[in-house]
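# nightly structure sweep
# worker-07 picked up a monomer target from the shared queue
# config: single-sequence mode, recycle default, output format = structure tokens
# input follows
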Amino acid sequence: MKILFLGDVVGQSGCNAIRQNLKEIIKNENIDFTIVNGENAADEGVGITQNILEEFLSCGVDVVTSGNHIWDQKETYDFIKDQPRLLRPLNLGKNLPGNGFIVLNSRTGLKVGILNLMGNVFMKKCEDLFTTIKNFLENNSLKKNFDCLVVDVHGEITSEKMAVGHFFDGRASLVVGTHTHVPTNDARILSNGTGYMTDAGMCGDYDSVIGMDKNNSIKRFFKEDSKKHFPSKGESSLSGVIVDVCKETGLALGIKNFIIGGVFKR
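# output follows
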């Protein structure tokens, strides 16, 4: 089976690209299950609204993951309780609404586990990442609790995400990083069969500073008169990864990263 993972969707530009392209990608690539990180999808470039979530689901998205901006839209705290397909990091806090893990059926009837985690280094305070993973694996295993497992590690530094990938190696179908909005050129299959990519990049306008208006961002670095960060609204590129998973083992048979449209058409 083929699983599609798209990196952080940023603002209106990223949402437009999902609306215009996702169904065609799913059809052309014979995708069985689609996961999108949507924590920057709101018009302001932070958080996600219920309307955007529902639109993603109508476009063919099966699960939306998130990260440190999950609560930046106040309405999310309420509607996430009734939207199990929107995940928040499992280690963000046990007493918060929502879930960090879900198992759903793919289009071919296989059970897909999706786990959303957040890094500890240079990130908003959350429970220990590796203790959370250890506890999860003590209670969940590939081919017993699910046919395949996709892990979204929302983190700042590459070393932390790489360590997570190796810790899951042989016990997950795909471990992919999000948050930096810059795609890494290291999509590969680890030694024990887990697909891995340090960061899937973003779905948004790359003629920007990680999706935000470039001129305003430069002014902020110069400490000149500037506004609060706001998304760039040019044509979006879609960035992500497709992993081909063995139905018998739940491990990766192949993996490819891609970035299409926007400035990458040139």
